[in-house]
Amino acid sequence: ILSTEKQLEQKNNQNLLMLIALGAILMVVLLAWTLKIIRQKNLFRLSSQLDALTQLSNRGHFVACGMQQFEKTQGDISVILFDMDHFKNINDGFGHASGDWVLKAVSARVKALLPKAEMLGRLGGEEFAICLPKFDRHEALALAESCRAAIAAIDSLPSGFAFPITASFGVASRGMRELKEFEDTLAAADKALYFSK
Predict the structure, then answer these.
(1) Which of 11, 54, 66, 83 has its CA 20 to 30 A from that of 165?
(2) 71 flagged as catalytic
(3) Which residue among 9, 126, 139, 183 is the active-site one?
(4) Is-contact 125 87, C-beta < 8 A?
């Protein structure tokens, strides 16, 4: 009887160890699966916020972040809108690959000029926007002029063709003509851009 009890106890211990090992394996698998889901969710979130070509904020993400900046920033805040001049001629004359090259080159050049906290986004096509917390109208105009000159200085030869690259800019700041909200300031910058064209 004692021998049988001892064998049963050993079997119970073995079963318990097997259950603990199985539980640990299940926990590891569950943890790995959860981490994979979190990683995929973060990738989906990031891809839903970025423009695939330029790796800048896309329109939806830029507008949402711009609205947040306007809510949390007291005082000066400005918006710059710009788009490429005669971009259709580049696409039609030199191909869409050249047009894509221009958009990437312009994105990189303008991004290099911005302070880290400022936000640059591609609103669509060849149109871009910059949100500038703590920039008054004069500072935003100076930055827009720097960006305009930097874009005009881009050498297009690495694209395989020689053509000029220029952009038109519109600037608006909170406080100008009773502008208070992000959407109104963006619309005012759009009007200024149209006027500069």
Answers:
(1) 66
(2) no
(3) 126
(4) yes
